[in-house]
Amino acid sequence: MKKQLIGFFTAVSLMTVPAAAVNAADKANAEPDVYVNDSLIMFQDQNAKIIDGVTLVPARGVFESLGYDVEWDSDARTVKVTSDTGVRVVTLTIDSDIMQINTYKTIMEIEKTEYTLEVPAQIMNDRTMIPLRAISEAFDCGVEWDQDAYRVDITSGEPILLEGAQPTPKPAESEMLTMSLSTDAETISAGEEFDVYVDVSNTPANSFLSGITVTFNYDKSKFEFVSGTLLNNNNEPLEATVYAENPDYMTGTKALYVTIYGDTARTTDGHVLKATFRSVNGESGEIAFGNNYDTLRGFESYLMYNNDNQDIIYDGQNIIVDRTPLKIGQ
Predict the structure, then answer these.
(1) Which of 92, 161, 187, 225 is deepest in the core (most CB within 10 A)?
(2) What is the pLDDT of residue 237?
(3) H or E segment at 74?
(4) What is the distance between the alpha carbons of residues 244 and 204, in angstroms, rounded to a whole number?
């Protein structure tokens, strides 16, 4: 999805919030993990819950990660979820087993249907919980259950369009904006520092990199995050106007940088950020991107580009985050 600049600076302000999203499938308490397009949804204070064989999830998070709009009407006690195209609207009422599905066939014509739920939407721990499979399938998303891993996988379906409308062609993966990791480190010893680079390919045309947020996942008994810096087209350090590094409440290490210097910012493919780590004990290990979706802070790893004075965030389905682990010292 693409979001405007305000979404990025909201993420900056929220980095000081002490609550951490922690997920771990818990069969004993009937709390499965939920993945959307292979990204783990990190709920804050109420995990997904299985009730009478039906998985309920907090109304936000799962569908916001797909780019959908989620609205809560406290007076009517209803949840309204609207597809990213605005063509389909699903409405659920707390404690009602009827789900309403309205689909715009044309701008003037609406197809209205109802679906009877096995388990209704309900309030749990002050959170609005809605049935995951029913609403996902209402938006033509794929739903798979893995009993062994105790997880649900949601995959987005084709765009829901007005009759006769043609979908915007999606670029091939080889043409999509991509983030990956690289390093020059070969062998490491205890106390030695080494650099890991965030690399970008398929940079948007006529744009400069104005912001980056990445989460590095690694074994903290082996590596320590030291610092990071943006790089320009010549791989030289570039001053960031906003930055935050390594909040203690994150399970990995999160680094965020924003710049407004379009005359010096990176405009080409290659190294966009240098992250310096220190080896704790000289042991080999792995470093990888996190790209989960935190229901409070959004995606863990994403890029922001400025094009004609408009900042656009690339995350979710509009960017490929290569989470192949980078092997250090092997």
Answers:
(1) 92
(2) 93
(3) none
(4) 25
